[in-house]
Amino acid sequence: xxxxxxxxxxxxLIKEKKKLVETRSWKTDYRGELYIHGSSASxxxxxxxxxxxxxxxxxxxLSYGKIICKCNLVDCIYMTKEYVEKMKKNNYQEYICGxxxxxxxxxxxxxxxxxxxxxxxxxxxxxxxxxxxxEVMDLMKNIEYGWVDKQGSKHNIVDESYSDNYILQxxxxxxxxxxxxxxxxxxxxxxxxxxxxxxxxxxxxxxYDNDRCPTHTFLTFEKNNxxxxxxxxWERFKGIHEYNSLKDLLIDVRDxxxxxxxxxxxxxxxxxxxxxxxxxxxxxxxxxxxxCENGNNISLEDM
Length: 303
Description:
- A six-stranded mixed β-sheet has the order 2-5-4-3-1-6. Strands 12-11-10-9-13-14 form a six-stranded antiparallel β-sheet, with helices on both faces. Strands 7-8 form a two-stranded antiparallel ribbon.
- The longest helix has 16 residues, at 246-261.
- It is elongated.
- Helices cover 27% and strands 29% of the residues.
- The chain is an alpha+beta fold.
């Protein structure tokens, strides 16, 4: 879904149909269904002591960090001096609910419908996309397992040239190339999930064996007091797996990694799980290892 974030009480004024025009400093060519999100930022400073606005929202709870209604964006009008004066004269309530100045834009909204169940979300700048977990899995279906080298050539098999020639792709590059190993695919998943308020985490599991040092990266999220392992690149376990605790989740992934990737042939002291943050793009294989190793070393026994 397409979403626009507004500092409160702007979002609530739209939900309550007391504001039908959103004013912006920039133009949009988008037309169609648009969801309105109340950002987690504090009360809009220009309206903090504006009795006219405070009267409009009296006894109405505000919604911070939630998508609260949908509407249709039907037009985007450039504000001339005449337009601003006309709005002030003929639609004063709308005028006080926006920032009307020559050179800005009026986004015209119709068909406003409050959501029965608001959706928690972080929000982003500009018009952004919100995807649930099933939509993200559907978006990932065109990505095949493979990698891209420093020259931009695609490979479907991880061979001896991988360690010296691999580079970590950006989400846009993965979408364009339609190929990526788990390291790449997790970054695309992170990109798709970035508007969600689900405590998204990414993990790197590795077994140091002085040879190939097999690894796997994966993404998890927390939703409605449940924990989920989101898996696309590992074909055997592709899907969305639910757990009662993060510990249960990590133990399950570890056990599957040991059984199917290590064939139960491993040294427990050489097996590590790191919680790592978003890396820079275009890292080589060694640099990516180092980035993940700089994350938090997870001790399952201490969880």
